[in-house]
Each structure stands twice: as structure tokens, then as C-alpha cells.
Fold this sequence. Notes:
The protein is mostly helical. It contains 12 helices and 5 strands.
Amino acid sequence: MNEKRIQCPKHLDQESGRGLVEQVRAEGVAPRQTLVLDFSETEDMDTRGGAWLIELANYVKAQNAKFDLAGQQGDVAEFLGLLRPSLVSMAEAPPQRAGVFEQAGEAALNTISEFKEFYHFLVDTIYWTALAPFEGRGFRWGSFIDELNEMGVRALKITLLMNFLLGMIVAMLSAAQLELFGASIYVADLVMVAFARELAAVMTAVVVSARTGAAIAAELATMKVQEELDALRGMGLHAAQFLVAPKVLALVIALPLLTGLGMLAGIGGGAVWGLVVLEFRPDIWFNQTLNAAMFSDIFQGFFKAFVFAIVIVLIGCHNGLRVTGGARGVGLMTTRAVVMDIFFIVLIDMIFAAFFYYIL
């Protein structure tokens, strides 16, 4: 065994500790060697002697060697017990890589835990949004108006612009195909149906998720990191009542309204292409558009927007309240909220499409 043993002095103090360190430095310690200090003959030691022991341990570690103690007893053993974490260099066990089953099990447990947290959060949100106001427990109407302005009014320009440009793109691409059959007028039908059923709700929801969903997650995550949520609880305020409920009600109202305006903007974008590029007369184009408008299609779009609003605000709040760490945690949860929003928007839209087109 590659071990070097040195006997400690009878009294370990300032002078003897310095001498011990100088002795070891003079003799040297080989890499991967273990230096063992024998305290079997040491009767007492003071804090200065302990400081020299720490200095000796640091020197040994710097030589890529190990440091250990032996033979300590009585008060010396008790004192060394306090110093031992700083003295003994323990060999670090290489990290073991988790196997496939361990990783799958950990992911399953984390998912189950998150579902439980989301369930409790959902129950609190439903109560404070839909039930508590009717029980006289109050609702923050001032905050609701502020959120409605932030989520709805301030998102209006980008929503209209994105739907307008998308309407032009759809008209452009569909016209290139329908012109081959001399059926360019049906571009108006296609734009109308596409925006009423799908595109207005999905495009508006994606824009709002990137804008409002991210803002919700970042706001709540920052408040949690800065312990403002703990302060609210300390004042007897519930986070779901004070922060979440106004956001839920505001977005449930704002997103369907934005979707309706997005429908008009998308249809307008298609009309610009039809009137300017395809050179249709305005009365012919708009009559074709109105004839293609069906109440069932428009209802589908608004109903999807209502569901998307609930998904966006719940995911944003859920991720914001689950943040851990500092600024990096806020960024990660904000990104996670946006990615989850877009994923669930597409998934829910696919489910609705299958339901309305193949079941109803």
C-alpha cells in the first residue's frame, strides 16, 4: 500500500504545527500517495495547531495525494472531528450513468408529480375565477381591466398584421393551383373557410402564446424567485385569487375577440390579393366570400379560440409558479411555457379537426 505515516507531536500548537508542515514539505509527498498523521501520542492541540493541519491538508491535496488521520482519542479526537471535513481528501466516486429504466422511471415520476401540482392549481383557479366571486370573496376587477388591455388591446396590431399577411399567402398559393383549372374565384371560398375554421384561431393563439403566455410565465416566475409570492401568502392573499384569476378571465374574453378580428384581417388579406392581383370585381369577390361563410365554421373558430385561451393562461401560470433557481430558471420556464403552448395548440386543433370533420 502506497502510504506514508508521520507521528504528530505531543502538543500540537503554533510552533509544532509549523514544524510539522515544514517537515512534510521537506520530505515531499508522491502523487497518489496517502499521508497518514498518527495522533496516538498527541495529548492536546489548539486552534492554531488545527489551522496548520488544514494548511498541511491543502498542501497534500495540491500534490495530488491523499490525507488521512489515525490514532486520535479523547479531546483531540473530538477537535479533529470538527476539522475532518477540511482535512481528509475523500476519493470521489465516478458518477454512475442512469440506465434506460431508471431514466424512464424518473421521467414518469416527474410527470406524475407535475400532473398532481397542475390538478391542485387547476382546482384553485376554477374556484377563485368562477365560484369565489359569487360567494362574496371578491375579484380584482381593476387588475382584470389592466390584463384585458395588455392581452387584448395591445396585442391587436400584431394579431391583425399576422392574419392579414397569412391571408395573402393562402390566397397567393391557392390561386397558383386553382388558375390551372380556371377556378380562381374559389380562392375567396378557400380563404373564408380556412380562416373561419382553422387559421384565424390557430395563428392568433400562436401570436398570443408567444406574447402573452411568455409574459405570464416570466411575471409569475420572477415574483416567485424574488419571494413576492411568499410575501402575498404572508399577507393572507392567495396567489390564484390575486394573480391567476384576473389573467384567466381577461384572456378568455380577449382571445376570441382577437380571433374574430383576425378572421376579418385574414379575409381582407385574401381579398387584397384577389382584387389587386387576380383582378376580380369587388362585388363578385365579396359575394363569393359571403356565400362561403357558414355559421358552423365560424362557431368552430370561436370555440377553439376559447379553449386555446384557457390552455395558454393555465400553462403560463403553471410554469411560472413552478420555477426553481434564479434568473436562469425564469428563462427556462418562460421558454418551456411557450413551447408547451404551441404544442398543445396544435394538438387540440388536430383533435377538434378530427371531431368536427369525422364525427359531427
